[in-house]
Amino acid sequence: MTSTIDITTDQALKARHRAVWALGDYPAVAIDVIPELGPELVAASGVRAGDRVLDVAAGSGNAAVPAALTGASVVASDLTPELFGAGREFADRHGVQLAWEEGDAEALPYEDAAFDVVLSCVGVMFAPHHQRAADEIVRVCRPGGTIGLLSWTPDGFVGQLFKAMKAYAPPPPHGVQPPPLWGDEDHVRALLGDRVTDVVARKQTLSTDLFPTPDKWLAYWKTVYGPTIAVYRGIADDPERVAALDRELTAVAARFDRGTDATVMEWEYLIVTARKRV
Ligand SMILES: C[S@@+](CC[C@H](N)C(=O)[O-])C[C@H]1O[C@@H](n2cnc3c(N)ncnc32)[C@H](O)[C@@H]1O
Fold first, then answer.
1. CA distance 264 to 261
2. What pTM value is reported for the model?
3. Quick one: pLDDT at residue 261?
4. Residue nearest to atom 16 of ligand 1 (CA)
């Protein structure tokens, strides 16, 4: 049984995570850098008009809004309601309506089997306890329904970015798992277990030429991406560590630059779709 201390510790951890994701301007990342990922996940998951869809860790609606554009009835759920204002504007621009509801992926406030499709686009991977979150996703999906997950891979750009930042951040609390593990097919298969069938997994790459140089990418990223802003805040009084982290992150960006004349960064992700066993 979970003790009161565990609940208090967990609430404090989630409050910190919420504060991190509210830093900077995450909706700009979703709109400017990774806008194709939401539609990609919605298409891979076969979302159709009339489906009841839950987007877990929906942020500003990168997957939820394209899902609503199919005619599905969509709930966008996230730990960080600070992102919903941008999400509502994004939905308005596309002329769709959806429900925006605060919720922790590890304790979803929905009944069993409430949704036909449960999605998460680079979202649930940031919930700290992977099995708890996976169990919740399976629980709220109806038997025969679809689960669709899109996650950054450990060896891809974002996975390597988190690996580089780790040495500059305080150690995570006991039991917290690294987000990019959700980009490992075997890990996701083990999390979902025999509660699902028809598992399809494939790695793909997002290419972006938005940043003329790795330095320019880092300058942008340090203003928009909450987890990176938080790590820099933690070492702000140590200019040598700041400079060292700058060098490491720029080097990661340069390693994933596949361009010739201009910088073209490639960011690998894993898409997994599965059917909940009937
Ligand atoms: C990289 S953003 C992805 C947002 C959106 N799905 C997208 O594709 O742009 C990660 C999201 O996970 C959310 N998140 C982190 N931990 C969470 C948790 N325990 N429960 C629900 N959402 C969480 C953050 O608030 C943030 O919106």
1. 9
2. 0.97
3. 79
4. 127
